[in-house]
Design a protein that fits this description.
about 240 residues; alpha/beta; Rossmann fold; six-stranded parallel beta sheet; 10 helices; about 15% strand; globular
Length: about 240
């Protein structure tokens, strides 16, 4: 049973099955890992219930975010044994109304992004912080690709597959997945390694991405794939 089955109507299940959506696309030969926005702003500075965490970090995904962090750590450990390229994204450290752009328009607490705590919030969580050789990309908008050099870097290393982790499932993960799909990468979203503050949003976006843009795979499937790769695929 897929995680989204309990929120789909019987009609939706029948329509998508009959229309042929959700076929497994499979992995390519040269994967890279994307870790999208796993910073303190999105998980808080400690594991705690989300309604408590959002009092201080309005973007926080709470305890579910921290569970995602621990699973991402497992995936990264396996990726590093094969010397795979790992790309992190986060927001710019500094901010202003101009940099924030339309982010200001949809949240009543957006002014908090201009205070002194923003710099800490944009830091990648220490449990999975970038290591030597990893790439950290600063972005302003949801997609990891929009206004960044990510596509040129993936082209340079001749990657054909992206394993997507991070948050939020319905926001920056989805935006990045659609752009990666649009650039003709094979895309796999590692289910235990993505998270969202909204439980319904998490499920329905996993369903939609799996139907059209990506394979939603288990962490075990991802680890099995990584373990089967040549150790020096990228010449490290």
């Amino acid at each position: 049973m897929a995680t989204w089955d309990d929120i789909l109507t019987a009609r939706d299940k029948e329509v998508f099955a009959k229309a042929g959506f959700g076929k497994r696309a499979g992995f390519g030969q040269r994967p890279a890992v994307l870790v999208i926005d796993v910073n303190y702003a999105f998980v808080g500075d400690r594991p705690e219930p989300i309604l408590k965490s959002v009092e201080r970090y309005r973007h926080s995904c709470g305890e579910e975010g921290w569970e995602g962090v621990y699973r991402i750590r497992e995936l990264l450990s396996a990726a590093r044994t094969k010397h795979l390229p790992i790309f992190y994204t986060t927001a710019w450290e500094e901010s202003s109304p101009l940099i924030m752009g339309r982010w200001q328009g949809k949240n009543g607490r957006s002014g908090e992004d201009l205070d002194d705590g923003r710099c800490k919030g944009t830091e990648i969580v220490g449990e999975i912080s970038p290591q030597e050789g990893d790439i950290l990309i600063r972005k302003q908008k949801p997609s990891a690709f929009f206004g960044t050099p990510l596509i040129s870097m993936l082209n340079e290393i001749r990657a054909d597959t992206v394993l997507v982790t991070g948050c939020t499932t319905s926001g920056c993960v989805r935006a990045s997945v659609i752009d990666a799909f649009s650039y003709n990468f094979r895309v796999s979203v590692v289910e235990e390694c993505v998270f969202d503050r909204g439980q319904a949003s998490h499920k329905i976006n996993l369903f939609d991405m799996n139907a059209k843009y990506a394979d939603v795979i288990s962490l075990n499937d991802a680890l099995e794939y990584l373990n089967g790769l040549p150790k020096h695929l990228y010449g490290a």
